[in-house]
Design a protein that fits this description.
- It is built from 13 helices and 2 strands.
- By secondary structure, the chain is mainly alpha-helical.
- The chain has one domain (about 60-265).
- The protein has a two-stranded antiparallel sheet.
- A hairpin with a 2-residue loop joins strand 1 (about 65) and strand 2.
- The longest helix is centred in the middle third of the chain and has 27 residues, at about 110-135.
Length: about 270
């Protein structure tokens, strides 16, 4: 396992610059024929937020969450969720979609799912700019806790490297897994404190919900952007997150290295 983790991570780090260049090139090519082009990187998440704001704020009458306007509270949860969801789903199908490249070009296989992670967070940087502007216009004070976004970005990357390698490898070998992953991510959306707060639940149910490591990232964004709380304010949840993230990283690297020789045969 240690050898597999070292090999996969070494491959990712050595080829990170190459991965970024490939991702940016593919992103430009993907948007080239569109009238609005790169503006869709901003418009797509904003439209999704508008839909959920209309459903929960206008339709269900939710006006405030924890003392903040619901649209700001929602945006602080939706922005990280959209990046996490895009990275996981994009990575899961990446090896299968790159079948012709894998068969004909010698390329480090671990960078293929990593392109989905880089793409998701490239778009995330643009949407975060919109979020910060919305917070300023909404009268939310800027504090030094904003700097803690770098911690949550690093934490989400560790989690996503493992998830990307794991889901892409499983989907390449067991195609049914890709079909199961999409409804699973839809379920996680509603149990990850994105559109409704889990702190109103019973303590026991809250503990169960926080077994989902995505909750740590999403609530972390709200802590540093809205509540002015440090990441050290929940040491138990933080320790659990890192144990889960490192376990997922080890599992993803190990499975990827074991299955990569089967990719060409399966594809």
């Amino acid at each position: 396992m240690i050898h597999a983790v070292g090999t996969a991570l070494g491959e990712i780090v050595r080829n990170l610059r190459r991965t970024v260049r490939l991702t940016l090139y593919e992103n430009r090519s993907r948007r080239a024929g569109m009238l609005l082009g790169r503006w869709w990187d901003l418009l797509s998440p904003l439209l999704q937020i508008l839909i959920y704001w209309f459903v929960f704020s206008v339709g269900l009458g939710t006006q405030e969450k924890n003392g903040f306007p619901y649209h700001l509270w929602l945006m602080c949860g939706m922005m990280p969720w959209l990046a996490l969801n895009s990275a996981i789903l994009g990575a899961s199908a990446s090896i299968q979609q790159a079948a012709s490249i894998i068969r004909n070009v010698r390329i480090p296989l671990s960078i293929i799912p990593m392109k989905a992670v880089v793409r998701a967070y490239y778009e995330h940087l643009w949407t975060m700019a919109i979020l910060l502007i919305a917070l300023l216009l909404g009268g939310v004070p800027v504090t030094w806790h904003y700097l803690e976004l770098t911690y949550y970005l690093a934490a989400s990357w560790v989690l996503l490297i493992g998830a990307a390698l794991l889901t892409s490898s499983l989907t390449a070998v067991f195609r049914d897994f890709g079909e199961l992953l999409q409804p699973l991510m839809r379920l996680l959306f509603y149990v990850s404190s994105v559109v409704w707060a889990i702190d109103g639940l019973s303590p026991g149910l809250q503990r169960v919900m926080r077994l989902n490591p995505l909750v740590y990232i999403i609530e972390g964004y709200r802590k540093c952007l809205l509540y002015g709380e440090g990441f050290w304010s929940s040491p138990g949840q933080g320790a659990y997150f890192w144990l889960a993230a490192l376990a997922l990283l080890a599992a993803g690297c190990t499975l990827h290295m074991r299955l990569r020789n089967r990719f060409i045969d399966q594809l």
